[in-house]
Every structure is written in C-alpha cells, then in structure tokens.
Design brief:
Layout lengths: L1 H8 L2 H30 L6 H49 L3 H7 L1 H25 L2 H16 L1 H48 L1 H6 L3 H27 L1 H26 L4 H43 L23 E8 L9 E8 L4 E6 L5 H7 L8 E6 L2 E2 L5 H7 E4 L8 E2 H5 L8 H10 L3 H5 L8 E2 L8 H14 L4 E5 L7 H12 L6 E5 L3 H4 L4 E6 L2 E6 L1 H7 L1 H10 L1 H10 L1
Parallel strand pairs: 3-10, 3-11, 6-9, 9-10
Antiparallel strand pairs: 1-2, 1-4, 4-5, 7-8, 11-12
Helix pairs in contact: 2-3, 2-6, 2-11, 3-5, 5-7, 5-11, 6-7, 6-11, 7-9, 7-10, 7-11, 10-11, 15-17, 20-21, 21-22
This protein binds adenosine-5'-triphosphate.
Adenosine-5'-triphosphate binds next to helix 12.
Length: 582
C-alpha cells in the first residue's frame, strides 16, 4: 500500500495540520468539564461575577474549539480530495500501460469499481482518519488523565474500562476487515452484470431474456445485500457493546464518587466533571467505532486499488526508434517465424507454429472458420498480445524493437467491433492523425465508402456522434472506423472482419479502393467470406490455430482441402460446375 501513500505526500502539510488542529480542539474540549466543576463548586451567592467569568470561559472554549474544528475540516478535505484525485489519475494512467493480457486477466468491471467506488471509499477513510484517528484516542486517554487529576480512586474505573473498550473494538475490526474485501468483490459482480445488461440490452430483449437477467441480477444483488447486512450487523455490534460497557462503568463511577461525596472527600462539581469525562469518552468511542468501520472499508478498498498499481505490464517498449539502417526496405513488410500464442489461463494454444511473410504493398486475405485464430493472428502485429513463441518482424526488424508510437503510426487496425466515441465525426476521424486537414478526412471517407454517409448528415464532419456511435447504423459505423484508420496513412492496414455489416456492392467497392491505395500499404483482410479475400495476393487459411494453406485463390482451390471446403459451402453452384468441368 506504500504505492498509495506516495500520493498523500503531496499533501504533507495538510495531513499534519488537519490532525494537529483536531488535537487543539480536543484539548479545549478536555478543559470544559473542569470549568463546569469550578462553576458548580463556586458559591453563587457571593461570587456572581466568578460564575459569569466561568460562563465566558466556556463560551470562549466553545468558539475557539469550533474554529479549530473548521480549520481541521478544511485541511483534511483538501488532502483527501486531492489525494483521491491523484490516485484516480494514477490508476487510470497505469491501466493505459496494460497489455490486453493484463486487461483480460483482471477484467474491466472490477477496474471500473476500483477506479470509482473504491477510490471514493479511500477518500472518505483519509478524510475521517486525518480528523479522528488521533482526536478520538486523545480525548479518551486525555479524559482518563484528567480523571486522575481529579480523583485517583474514581479514575481507576476509567483505567479498567478503556482497555476493555479498545479490546472489543479491535476484535470486531479483525473480524470485519476481510469481509469488506468480499463486499467489494460482490459489488464487482453486480457492476459486471449491470454493464453486460446495458450493453447487450437489444440482444437480451430479442431473446426475451429479461426475466432471466432480472433473476440473475437479483441472485447476485441478494448475495451482496446479505453480505452487507452481515458486515453491517457485525460492525453495528460495536455501538451497543461499547454503550453497555460505558454505562456499567458510569454506574460504578457514580457509586464510588457518591460514597466519597458523602464522606466529604470529593466536591459535587468534581463528580459532575468525572461524569462529563465519561460522557466525552462515550461520544468519542462512538465516533471511533464509526471511524474504524470506515477505515476498515477504506483499507479493503485501498488494497484493491493498490493491487492494480502493483500490476506490472508484461509489455515493454523501447524508448528509441530502431535506426533507419535496421529497417530493410527489401525485407518483407511482415514476417511471422514459427509463431505460437496461448492466451493467459487458456489450456490450449490459439495459434501454433505460424510462419509466413508478406511483401510491402501486398494484400493478404486471412480466412478460416469461427475461432480458427484469425483475429488472434492480426492482434499480434500491433502487439495487442506478444507471441508466446517465435518472432514477428516488420521490415526485418523485430516488433519488440519499435517504440509504441512508431508501431501505432505504422499500423491502422479496424477491429471486428466498430467503436466510435462521443464527439464530432471530425474529432473521431482525427484520432488517426490530429493534424489531418478536412481534405485528407474526405479522402479517407471516400476510400472507405463513407463520404455519402457524412455528406447526408446535417453538420457533415461536425455531426455529433453519441457514445459508441449509437446514432449510426452498424454498416455506417464500420465504414467510419475504416476511414479513421485510413486517415493515419498507415503502412499496414488491418481490417478484422470489418466489412461484415456492408452490402455486397459497398463491400466490393471498398475492397477495390483499398487495392488502389498503392504499393506502400500492405493490407490484411480478415474474413470468413471467400468473396472478400479471393482477389488478395496471398490468402492464409487457418484451421484450429494452424496455418493449413498459403497461396492465391486458384492455388488454394487446387491444393488446400480446408479452403476447398469453405468455397464449396459458399459457392455450391460454382464448385459443382467446376467439378463437372474437371
Ligand atoms: N481473450 C481471450 N482469452 C482466451 N481465449 C481467447 C481470447 N480471445 C480468443 N480466444 C480463443 O482463441 C481462439 C481463436 O479466437 P479468434 O478470436 O482469434 O478466432 P477468429 O478466427 O477470429 O474467430 P471469429 O471468426 O469468430 O472472429 C478461440 O478458441 C477463442 O476461444
């Protein structure tokens, strides 16, 4: 958790001043019962002015205490809010460094809970901790010391009660700490279900799964509620237990003090002072109990936030570009050499011993059945994942030697799921190149067969896209994401099944304009459709993670049984005719 403490260091001054002012407030509070005792023990008839003086002192103590309390609150709020802001930013920045392997392993739902709810809990913990962590024990122990200055025999009641109080508090704390972690994990599950439900609402309704979703949510929500209730009850035990203990102690105290008052060895005012000290202890122990519950929650949340910061990304990039002479223009644009890849936690490899090379300017089709490894293969090129075995080279240079920005600049990838962000079309297009002119944007849109879509929108390039581009159709989104990748002028363009929502004519026109991009652009077209890849210079056929064929459409029809099978299933008439002709 030291990795979180670093962010509080920036608020060192506030973190010292907040408890300090709280201690000053506490010190003033401790004098109040003494002044009241003096007031009671003063003969009112002969010393009226003294009574008014004590009254004035009491008012002064109250106002000065209030002033200290406000200042302490200011500093603790400043420190805790600033600290939480810095932690939130640090966690967000750190997540950006994660490779897909880490993101897959930890899961986005728990990251959202940790970044929002957990950080908020830590903020509350820091705020309360700075104000009360020292104040409450200080008042409890201070009240005991003051009691000893009044009467040692009565003060012994305090000396016995206070350690028992601390013991009970500690026991409940130890029991509840691990449960708070479980509560947050339960919250992760509920967040995951909510997210899945909201993002998949159309599918859920189409399959009439609303009732099942409600039941599943209810099940998890109930489990979370029960756990929360159990932890709440456990923590709530603290208050009645401490009340009972203090009330017993108060009865014993009054009995002892009463005896001494009867004997004439203790003035009545001092009994009231002792009683007031006992009341102060009750109030502070209640605050302490609330503080401990909050701190427990905060600690459990802080551990979860800290564990995100502890994750080291498995992907590192060099700071410097490989020198120009290391990138050979004559070398293949992309070369896979005996590449295998297994997802973390998956038993079997998703790709096994893949070797092929592609020259600059070539168009490569990747085809294969569902789950054959097509997306996995293209995800290795921009280093979404690193190959578990073998090597991948770009222009003769290992991909691990490219700094992140250079790799990003070289490769334009259009993922299977078209994703656009809230903002104007122009803003989205400029993700590819922030300096791109409108002319360059229109060029990319034209190439991606998206010009008409934008021209028909009321504000053209300024048309506002909703979150996830939900005010566009699936095909429109796909074309805009292709245009976004083209704005980059990438050397490598990867289209991962990104024309699946396009009609045949648009798909054909798109492929034609991509083929015309020129010799400097190497294109990977991932598809399950033969029509989408048949004109590629080279087609890779994947079957269950292995490369079972490489060649042109004609070559593969001749010598790749898997390709033949796909062709027959998609073009039954033609393949029948070809067989008859043969
Ligand atoms: N993040 C992941 N974690 C674990 N296994 C994965 C992950 N992504 C994919 N896989 C597995 O890897 C294999 C290849 O998946 P991949 O997505 O590359 O197939 P694909 O050929 O692109 O399929 P499709 O045409 O359906 O998109 C599948 O068995 C899949 O279950």
């Amino acid at each position: 958790m030291q990795n979180l403490a670093v962010y509080l260091k920036k608020y060192r001054k506030e973190s010292i001043l907040a408890p300090l002012f709280k201690l000053l407030e506490a010190l003033f509070d401790l004098f109040v019962p003494l002044v009241i005792a003096r007031m009671i023990d003063t003969d009112a008839a002969s010393n009226r002015h003294l009574i008014f003086l004590y009254f004035g002192v009491l008012l002064l103590l109250a106002f000065v205490g209030l002033g200290f309390s406000i200042v302490a609150q200011f500093f603790s709020a400043k420190a805790s809010v600033g600290f939480a802001g810095a932690v939130r930013q640090a966690v967000f920045d750190h997540i950006q460094t994660f490779s897909f392997t880490e993101l897959d392993a930890i899961g986005s739902d728990t990251l959202i809970t940790r970044l929002s709810d957990d950080v908020n809990q830590v903020q509350t913990g820091v705020n309360m901790g700075l104000r009360l962590l020292l104040r409450s024990p200080f008042i409890v122990l201070g009240a005991m010391v003051m009691a000893f200055t009044i009467n040692v025999r009565c003060a012994l009641v305090f000396a016995v009660t206070i350690p028992i109080l601390f013991g009970v508090t500690f026991l409940i704390m130890m029991l509840s700490i691990p449960l708070f972690g479980k509560v947050q994990a339960g919250l992760d599950r509920v967040t995951a279900l909510t997210r899945e439900n909201l993002t998949g609402v159309r599918v859920i309704r189409a399959f009439c799964r609303e009732q099942r979703c409600v039941e599943e949510f209810e099940e998890n929500n109930q489990a979370l509620t029960h756990l929360n209730l159990f932890v709440g009850r456990l923590s709530a035990l603290l208050n009645p237990l401490t009340y009972v203990l203090i009330n017993i102690a108060t009865v014993v105290l009054i009995q002892r003090a009463g005896v001494q008052v009867n004997l004439g060895s203790l003035p009545q005012g001092q009994v009231v002072a002792l009683y007031n000290y006992m009341l102060q202890i009750i109030v502070e122990v209640i605050k302490l109990a609330a503080l401990i519950i909050t701190l427990n929650k905060s600690l459990a949340c802080a551990k979860r936030v800290s564990s995100v910061l502890d994750i080291k990304t498995s992907m590192t990039y060099p700071a410097r570009t490989p020198s120009f002479h290391m990138e050979h223009t004559a070398a293949p644009a992309v070369a896979f050499d005996d590449v295998s890849f297994t997802y973390q936690g998956a038993g079997a490899p998703s790709l096994s011993h893949i070797s092929f090379s592609v020259m600059s300017g070539e168009t490569v089709g990747i085809i294969g059945g569902t789950g054959s490894g097509k997306s996995t293969l293209v995800h290795l090129i921009p280093r979404f994942y690193d190959a578990t075995e073998g090597s991948i080279r770009l222009n003769g240079c290992p991909i691990q030697d490219f700094p992140h920005e250079i790799l990003c600049r070289k490769i334009g990838i259009v993922p299977q799921r078209a994703l656009l962000f809230q903002g104007s079309i122009r803003e989205n297009m400029k993700w590819g190149n922030e300096h791109a002119s409108d002319e360059a944007l229109w060029q990319a849109l034209t190439c991606a067969q998206a010009r008409e879509i934008v021209e028909n929108k009321p504000d053209k390039l300024d048309f506002h896209l909703e979150q996830n581009g939900r005010n566009l159709s699936g095909g429109q989104k796909q074309r805009l994401t292709i245009a976004r990748a083209l704005v980059k002028n990438p050397q490598l363009l990867i289209l991962d099944d990104s024309s699946s929502a396009l009609d045949f004519a648009t798909d054909a026109a798109l492929r034609k304009s991509i083929r015309n991009l020129g010799d400097s652009v190497t294109t990977f077209l991932v598809s399950q459709r033969i029509a989408a890849v048949r004109q590629a210079d080279k087609i890779l056929v994947l079957d269950n993670g292995t490369l079972v064929g490489v060649g042109t459409h004609e070559q593969l029809l001749h010598d790749c049984p898997v390709y033949q099978g796909i062709y027959e299933s998609q073009f039954p008439e033609e393949s029948k005719k070809e067989r008859e002709d043969a």
